[in-house]
Amino acid sequence: MNEQSREEQSLFLEFPLESLDFMRAGEASSELKQRLKKLGVKPELVRRAAIAAYEAEMNVIIHARKGTMRVEITPARLLILVEDEGPGIIDIEQAMQEGFSTASQAIRELGFGAGMGLSNIKRCADDLVIQSTPDQGTRLQITINIEKSDR
Amino acid sequence: MKLTEAIKELALTVVAAVDIECEISGGYVSDLLSNVMARAAAGQVWITLQGHQNIVAVAVLLELAAVIVAGGVQPDEETKQKAVSEGVTLLATPLPIFEVAGRLYQLGLRGGDNA
What we know:
Order of helices and strands of chain A: HEHHEEHHHEE
Number of strands of chain B: 5
Number of domains of chain A: 1
Oligomer: heterodimer
Order of helices and strands of chain B: HEEHEHEHEH
Strand order of the largest sheet of chain B: 1-5-4-3-2
Structural class of chain A: alpha+beta
Number of domains of chain B: 1
Shape of chain A: globular
Helix content of chain A: 25-40%
């Protein structure tokens, strides 16, 4: 397959995310999941993509002021890019530790803020790049390989 | 086990129903949404004390057979509406979580190894 035909098979999706919009929370991930299923992506990969997208989506809704989830799907891989304007992550290494969370008590009472989001994403991704600037925002780049997937 | 059997045996209240004839593959209990996302499997019933609308998104993404809101918690009105519109079966019971899980286990349902 040459590059051009690969490009033709790319699918781009974009979802705006709003702070504390619990009404629509999960819709972006749900739409992504439906698209992947329609494309015939393996169920296990669809599951990993849905989990990673959901956690990234919730992180923006819970912690940021606003953000965007952009998705690019090619036959080879799925790329989920989530960028937000928000408090940023001061210590990424600490944030990656399961159980660490800065979520408020009110958020925790809804069952969020367990400090498992980023580690869930990492477990589901083949590659995860986190960039963050405190008081500005965070950028997550999640890659899930579709071709040559051995899991 | 079929979902209808669980509903009948535990006298669960059907808040929103889609396919109650479906087979249940197992069960999972947690009130932490990220933990459910990581560990629960498609086709399972999820037992929780959370009654707010975000449980529906989790059920949709994981393709759970149903969500059982236990302990007498009343699912929010938004949760009911969302369950109907998203096609999620939502059940409720005054039974405590331990009882719900225990009785389902007694009926042959297992948690599986979702690690």
